[in-house]
């Protein structure tokens, strides 16, 4: 993995200092920048090459959602991981809409932080297990399909069941089709959505408006 620059944005200085120390010791991290709020982050982002931003959601001056949107306007290639103390649906759904690639709870182990950074740099999304489970539990079918829909009706049915955390045999039974057919639909879904795993499919489904939470 190539060397990357990280921007750590959080209004708690002790949290920033501890996380910056740990991040600086990773062999793929070149430099870690710091900001105590979204406004300071946006100002510091201009003129700097930043690959990943670890962005607190609730901050003074400018919150994480607004900061994420502005950061992507400045640097469309930046990867954003939202940080929060809470797994409330309103937080992660707002950050997904703002363009976040991942979501970490602040009580996560550093190994999970490292994995999140590696995953998003390799083109995947990353959500803490607690967050993913919360999304799965709340996901609902929409009555209307999104515009520019590229999935078939059956693929959407299978995607919904996948997002609900069901296995291929369970999906086959629910939809009254063979497991082999479900296997093929899952394979098509991964290919069409450029996803590598179930977590990626869940994030894709919400971002593209197939389902709602």
Tags for this model:
Rossmann fold, Arc Repressor Mutant, subunit A, 6-stranded parallel β-sheet, 50% helix
Major sheet: 6 strands, parallel
Helix content: 40-55%
Number of domains: 2
CATH topology-level fold name of the largest domain: Rossmann fold
Please identify which CATH superfamily of the largest domain we are dealing with. Answer: Response regulator
Adjacency order of strands in the biggest sheet:
2-1-3-4-5-6
Q: What gyration radius follows from the Cα positions, in whole Å?
A: 18 Å
- The run of helices and strands is EHEHEHEHEHEHEHHHHE
Strands, count: 8
Q: What would you say the CATH architecture of the largest domain is?
A: 3-Layer(aba) Sandwich
Number of helices: 10
- What is the oligomer described by this structure? single chain
Based on Cα principal axes, name the global outline.
Answer: elongated
Distance between the termini: 34 Å
Overall mean confidence score, pLDDT = 86
- List low-pLDDT spans: none
The percentage of residues in β strands lies in 15-25%
CATH C-level name of the largest domain = Alpha Beta
SS content category: alpha/beta
């Amino acid at each position: 993995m190539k060397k990357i620059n990280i921007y750590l944005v959080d209004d708690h200085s002790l949290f920033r200092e501890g996380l910056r120390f740990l991040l600086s010791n990773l062999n793929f991290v070149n430099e870690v920048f710091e900001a105590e709020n979204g406004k300071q982050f946006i100002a510091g982002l201009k003129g700097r090459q930043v690959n990943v931003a670890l962005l607190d959601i609730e901050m003074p001056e400018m919150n994480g959602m607004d900061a994420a949107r502005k950061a992507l306007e400045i640097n469309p290639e930046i990867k954003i991981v939202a940080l929060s103390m809470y797994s409330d649906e309103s937080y992660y759904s707002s950050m997904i809409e703002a363009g976040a690639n991942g979501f970490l709870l602040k009580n996560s182990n550093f190994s999970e932080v490292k994995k999140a950074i590696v995953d998003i740099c390799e083109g995947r999304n990353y959500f803490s297990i607690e967050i993913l489970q919360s999304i799965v539990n709340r996901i609902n079918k929409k009555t209307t399909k999104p515009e520019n829909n590229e999935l078939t009706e059956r693929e959407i049915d299978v995607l919904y069941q996948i997002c609900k955390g069901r296995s291929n045999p369970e999906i086959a039974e629910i939809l009254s089709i063979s497991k082999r057919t479900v296997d093929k639909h899952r394979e098509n879904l991964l290919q069409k959505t450029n996803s590598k795993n179930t977590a990626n499919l869940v994030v894709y489904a919400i971002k593209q408006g197939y389902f709602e939470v």
